[in-house]
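In the laboratory, one determines a bound structure by crystallizing the protein with its ligand and collecting diffraction data. In a computational setting the workflow is compressed into a single prediction: the sequence and the ligand go in, and a structural description comes out. We illustrate the idea with J2J.
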Amino acid sequence: MNSDGFPLWDQKRVKRYKELGLWENETFGEMLTRLARIHPDKVALTWHGQHLTYAELNHRVERSAKALLAFGLKQGDKVIVQLPNSFAFFEGVFALFKIGVLPVFCLPSHRFHEISHIAMHVEAVAYLTSEKRTGFDYVSLAHEVKESCPELVHIFSFDEMDGLVETGQFEGETDLQVKVDPDSYAFLQLSGGSTGLPKLIPRTHNDYYYSVRRSNELCGINEESVYLAVLPVAHNYPLSSPGVLGLLLGGGRIVLADSGSADEAFQLIEKEQVTITALVPPLALVWLEAVKHRKEDLSSLQVIQVGGAKCSAEVAKRIGPAFQCTLQQVFGMAEGLVNYTRLTDSEDKILYTQGKPMSEYDEIRIVDEHENDLGLNIAGELWTRGPYTIPGYFKADDHNRKSFSQDGFYKTGDVASVTDDGYLIVQGRMKDQINRGGEKVAAEEVENQLLAHETIFDAAIVAIPDDYLGERVCAYIILNKSFTIEAKEVKAYLRSKGLADYKIPDVVHFVDSFPETGVGKVSKQQLRQAIVQKVLMNN
Ligand code: J2J
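The predicted complex, in structure-token form:
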């Protein structure tokens, strides 16, 4: 780790990745400048029926970049970015890339609890947010976070369509004079995590750029591609697998949707002739229902990606026939490794595996509890290392010692097996996390909040199996003697603490004691079994 809290890449591997031509030494800022030169008049972004060409996007980005510099932002600073799918997201993020300032990608669903912690941890100096949003006041949230975070001095409020307000004075022709090193860290992503608050995932221009370029090759992205972004683009999957960055790098077009609703999406697919989109399994289920009654012509669609949580073979089987297109399973993680089924794979692979690592230089180990390597087709913990997998989290020494091996393998916490021809099948999970339809909830984070409540003696968060979301969040609670509280009060309390909505338990059970393992720890396995029994009995 360097003195700024960033993990160091092994220089021998870096040298090799460069010699192999994997790391190409172009930053994301330079990428946009180059693309705006190559095809200035091609449409890069479409949103609410409005278009931005590559040149227009680049112009807005440069104008904002100059403004942000003038406000005092400097290379290496970190900035909270909480912007929805909108022109503003691209303008803000690329402006930061161009001046070597690191966006910290928060999701629209994050609230005070998450963002204030993150802002403190990274010592964020600014917050990019948007003015016009229905239902939630993001600007007030930004101000609340600013109050609690001494380093945070600027709130930049973007108009979702027109971008950074008050940039007129920075229209000048002067070039940006900032040189950004492609080996430097470009941004911080959030990990779903399994302990406490989200860990921060630092990605360099070089490593991330490679993952995006390689994704484009495997997902068939070219200048004709039109990508419909229905998931929040700040998330690693729609950002980079190949996601919106892939589409820009490939010279294609991004169509931004405000939600995953099938109504909105189907209309956009027809109108904008969308060729590829990315879904999480619950959305795929909704679309499968909706497509039975659709009026729109969806024949432009060539590929539907499904990832973020396991897509059951039963659901996978229905997607190709229902949409007359190719299904691509994507098993990825913001820490790095991304696996894809290939577009030309046999049906067996597409339906029953979660794909193969995208790079031949991805190293995979499947290990048992003693860290011994297991053979093919045997399930164990997945470890990985490679040209785009992080060597460590940001400022997290203790956690890094647990999550990374001495020789730099990331211990994913996923349980998987590898087939004879190198495809991964996700079998389960070791980490104490709930995957709620692709949104990750760290059990400990919610438990800690519950434990702070005066009526609660002990709390355990476990997953309940769910047909639609895959898993939902269940809280088991032991109350302090002579206290009572209702489930809805527990939920309201967590909301008042500023927890993102998807972390609020769907179900709360009050019990007198928890089953324990031999060593006096709560047996989550037994709690999970109890929940499964209950679900079965109710059916
Ligand atoms: C089972 N579990 C999966 C899958 C992710 C592409 C796609 C997804 C993510 C992502 C991503 C899964 N089957 N197909 O970053 O670039 C679970 C695993 C994994 C964790 C990572 C991308 N796809 N998962 O979901 O960082 O448990 O990234 O370790 O949010 O999601 O979550 P996240």
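The longest helix spans residues 54-70. Keep in mind that any predicted model is a hypothesis to be tested, not a measurement.
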